[in-house]
Amino acid sequence: MDNKMPNQVGWGERVAYAMSDFGCNTIFQIVGTYFLVFCTDTLGVAAAAVTGLFAITAIIDSIDGVIWGQFIDRTHTKWGKSRPYWLWFAIPFAVFCVMAFTAPPLSETGKVVWIYIAYIGAKVLYSGINIPVTSILPALTSNPQERVTLSTVRQFFGNMGAAIFLPLTLPAVGLIAGIFDKGAKDPPTSATGWFIWAVILGVITAACLLVAFAGTRERVVTKDSNRAVPMRESVKALKGNYPWAIIIFINFIYWGGFAVRSSSLPYYFKYVLHNEALGSLVLAGTVITLASTAMVPFVARRLGKRNTMLLGMVGTALSQLVLYLADIMNGNVAIILTGIVLYFISYGLTGALIAVMLSDAVDFGEWKNGVRAEGFVTSFSSFSAKLGMGIGGMVLADVLAAGGYAASSDGTQTASALNAIRMGFIWIPFIGYAASAVALLFNNIDKLEPKMVADLTAKHEREAAEVADAEA
């Protein structure tokens, strides 16, 4: 691999690019972690009623990502193909996320309709602002090592957003409730507290996405950059593109397990361990991910991208077994914290490289099939991740309903409900993480990369010369 290619991207632009993920995670991690518990414990909606929402969302997720990808490939503006979506949809996305944590004075049926509109709108618009985060990466630089650096900085800031705001959420909701909703019996479930906190996060999210728009530039120009790539050509980029197929499967199964774990975490610490404060401390452990994410470029240089990502996936699977050990030891706090630390270290090694390997799949599609379709190829990342998270949420809601879960202000649940919560927090994520590690073993893109990069660099230079001659 030629690591001496020009960097092409300065630190100001790296940080601006990273603000896209910081903005996304500022509020959408809160949606992923607390939306279900907000519906059941604040709105008073039955878990079974939310199951249908997750099922419908999973269906929508199966098509909206591809549609957004086609929009991107057909976009041709002075700002490029991907950047404009942060400008156009930053504020609408933030509004729908705030709606997801709003408790309108409606009947139970009205509340169900409300959360359907809010959650589906937030998920669809999340694709609109998140797919460009991945699709723009191949256009920011053609240097493979710089892509790792960019993705690592982006993931670092994304994890930082989660590290800051996830552990702050319940205390912040309770604090806000203490000021503006003093009659709340259980401050962390206060509708007023949730709404004001969501507004604060929504403002931060929109501002970050606008900074990302203003501070980045699409500089890798090919013959496909200045034209709308039709669907029939975009599909050709997937022909024989096995690196793409593998990473899309991983995206589905890994993030499905992640969603189940995140959504069941508040239930586990509230009802199984009766220690919500420890749950907030565990969420604060996201800061550990910052350190492991920062190490990704250095580890990847030595082990390669695939093996670095594999190390992270194996670690996340093992962390779930450590949590099981703690569970059978009556919630041993020291072992729980050990499992959590292992999880966050391993997660940091994984998240940053998914976008890089999708960029490799874009290059592979152009190398093998002559078609560069960043939007279409990378849109399946959002599709598969959201489909996995949607199905994961549906599975968790079904498991809780089957276990007889019902919101309880005194922190008690039946034995079957507690076992359902354990299944969601420990075993379903373990299956997702382990299956992802097995799938990744079949990806050998690191071995192909030197020749692929050299061939594409020569191709892009020829195309640039042809464009210059045509304009002369």
UniProtKB/TrEMBL annotation:
PROSITE patterns: NA_GALACTOSIDE_SYMP (PS00872). GO terms for molecular function: symporter activity. It holds the Pfam family MFS_2. It is found in: Cell membrane. GO terms for cellular component: plasma membrane. The gene is uidB_1. It comes from Weissella cibaria. This is UidB_1 protein. Gene3D superfamilies: MFS general substrate transporter like domains (1.20.1250.20). The lineage of its organism: Bacteria, Bacillati, Bacillota, Bacilli, Lactobacillales.
